[in-house]
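Hi V.,

Quick status before I head out on leave. The structure for the redesign project is tokenized and pasted below; the design run finished overnight.
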């Protein structure tokens, strides 16, 4: 596929990740080890799907968690520590690294909590995207994918990021890609992702609890 994209993916330290999902992996018990396994499974399934997308040329994960870095390296994903601090700063830093290696590359940012992601749906969104675009989450307020094309990434993630990215000149991507819009922050989100079909790692982890 021509005009493939390089994506930077931010991944939190597992100890601080997905606090609203605490208990989802163990029937409400709230065991931290089980919770961190779930957080890692979400990331693993997201990265596995993104690597399988034909429109993705390169994935770069920004994470300061050594265990996450080890697992992602095993998947063939490049990782670098987060030295910037803060989500948008980390994304801007990752985009700068991608551009240093390939100044003419098409770049974007992908969230790491898309456990139902389908490679073909990510490909469809990438193919439909103009130079600068974003995919909103299923609620329509957040952002799961930001594409900067060959311009600055200018990430504006956080509360109301869909509105912020639209204000930055990004075109909203709405199409037949529900798995790309289903990020997971809460138990309700996890149920929605399960309806679409969870990736292997998340599904395997949640089967005993189910």
């Amino acid at each position: 596929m021509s005009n493939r994209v390089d994506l930077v993916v931010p991944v939190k330290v597992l100890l601080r990740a997905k606090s609203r999902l605490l208990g989802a992996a163990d029937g409400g018990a709230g065991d931290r080890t089980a919770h961190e396994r779930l957080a890692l499974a979400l990331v693993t399934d997201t990265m596995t799907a993104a690597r399988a997308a034909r429109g993705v040329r390169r994935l770069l994960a920004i994470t300061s968690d050594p265990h996450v870095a080890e697992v992602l390296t095993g998947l063939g994903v490049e990782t670098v520590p987060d030295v910037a601090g803060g989500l948008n700063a980390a994304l801007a830093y990752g985009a700068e690294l991608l551009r240093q290696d390939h100044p003419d590359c098409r770049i974007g940012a992908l969230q790491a909590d898309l456990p139902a992601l389908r490679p073909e749906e990510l490909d469809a969104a990438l193919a439909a995207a103009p130079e600068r675009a974003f995919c909103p989450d299923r609620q329509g307020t957040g952002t799961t994918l930001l594409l900067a094309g060959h311009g600055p990434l200018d990430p504006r993630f956080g509360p109301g990021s869909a509105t912020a990215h639209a204000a930055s000149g990004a075109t909203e991507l709405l199409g037949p890609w529900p798995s790309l819009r289903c990020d997971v922050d809460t138990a309700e989100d996890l149920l929605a992702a399960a309806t679409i079909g969870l990736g292997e790692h998340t599904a395997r982890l949640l089967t005993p609890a189910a």
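Above is the designed sequence. The first helix runs from residue 32 to 52.

G. will cover questions while I'm gone.

Best,
W.
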